[in-house]
Amino acid sequence: MRELLRKNRRRVRQELGDAERRKFFSPSAYGEYQEGVQTIPEYAYGKLIDIGCGNMPYKDILPDKVTQYDTFDIERRVPEVKFVGDIQNMDMIKDGSYDSAICIEVLEHVQNPFKAISEVYRILKQDGTLILSIPHLCRLHEEPYDFYRYTKYGIKFLLENAGFEVLKITPRGGIFCFLGHQFSTIFVCLFWHIPILKQLAFLANKWLCVKPCYLLDKIFDKNKLFALGYTCIAKKK
Fold first, then answer.
1. pLDDT at residue 14 greater than cutoff 90
2. Residues above pLDDT 70, as percent of the chain
3. pLDDT in tens, 73-120
4. Is residue 48 part of a domain?
5. Are 86 and 166 members of one domain?
6. How many domains does the chain have?
7. How far apart are the C-alpha atoms of 18 and 175, rounded to whole Å?
8. I want to staple 63 with a disulfide (CB 3.0 to 4.6 A). Which of 2, 41, 161, 229 is the partner?
9. Is there a contact between 228 and 138 (Cβ–Cβ < 8 Å)?
10. With bands split at pLDDT 50, 70 and 90, how would you rate the model's confidence at 47?
């Protein structure tokens, strides 16, 4: 059963490749899209690098003001990845190369986040913008490369320590989204290898789990004490 779920989870990532389609996979994905991903078109511009790009789910939502889209990841999960390496040492990229950068759900997998953020700072131009998403409430994943969880105070310190000016930190999701994500991962992936059932499971999950859990967090956790994670906008001073 565990191996079936693991294989189907990979299929889900491949088939729901972009952020628009992926948002209804789980309450966590929906919260990330509503309160995080939708900030990308607002702040992304010029020559942009997607750090930890995976299969590039955010490429299709980039605005016209992004003039160049480059990608960086620890491995080449799709052929189009431009740079393969470690975010803690991006020495193949020159100082001040990019106007903006996105780094979505990457820092929890980095052993030295201070070094990683310093590298992002280095490759950005003066007044360059970083769009960063990090987890706060999250189960273990991609083990053994799962090292940290961040509070809003921790991520603010991390960014300012590197020299960034923090413009905005937005919490997303909550305890209901967290629990709903665990259900969605099992329920949807259980049927994803069966052509007709997978669409029915996905639709049922959307209306019976994704949207209700998101709404419950909006109602009962207005102070975001159990935030699933944060989206941060920062500028290189």
1. no
2. 100
3. 999 989 999 999 999 999 999 999 999 999 999 999 999 999 999 999
4. yes
5. yes
6. 2
7. 25
8. 41
9. yes
10. very high
3-class DSSP assignment, residue 200: helix
How many helices (H) and strands (E) the chain has is answered by: 9, 7
What is the phi/psi pair of residue 147, to 5°?
Answer: -110, -35
Report the chain's mean pLDDT, rounded to a whole number. Answer: 96
Q: Same structural domain for residues 210 and 182?
A: yes
Verify that 101 and 139 share a domain, yes or no. Answer: yes
Q: Which two tokens stand for residue 141?
A: 């994943």
pLDDT in tens, 164-201: 999 999 999 999 999 999 999 999 999 999 999 999 99
Q: Which residue has the tokens 């997303």?
A: 172
Count Cβ atoms below 10 Å from residue 224 Cβ, excluding itself.
Answer: 17
Q: Rounded mean pLDDT of 150-155? A: 98
CB 175 within 8 A of CB 137: yes
Angle at 23 between CA 19 and CA 27, to 5 degrees: 145
- Asked if 68 contacts 101 with a C-beta cutoff of 8 angstroms, the reply is no
> 49: which 2 tokens?
């690098």
Do 121 and 189 have their domain in common? no
Tell me 78's DSSP state. Answer: S
The residue range of the domain holding 46 is 36-174+223-237
Asked, for residue 31, whether it belongs to a domain, the answer is no
Whether residues 53 and 95 fall in one domain: yes
* Lookup result for tokens 């992926």: 22
Residues 57, 44 within the same domain = yes
Position 69, amino acid: Y
Provide CB contacts within 8 A for 63, sequence distance 6+: 41, 44, 45
**Are residues 170 and 180 located together in one domain of the fold?**
no
Q: How far apart are CA 68 and CA 62, in angstroms?
A: 10
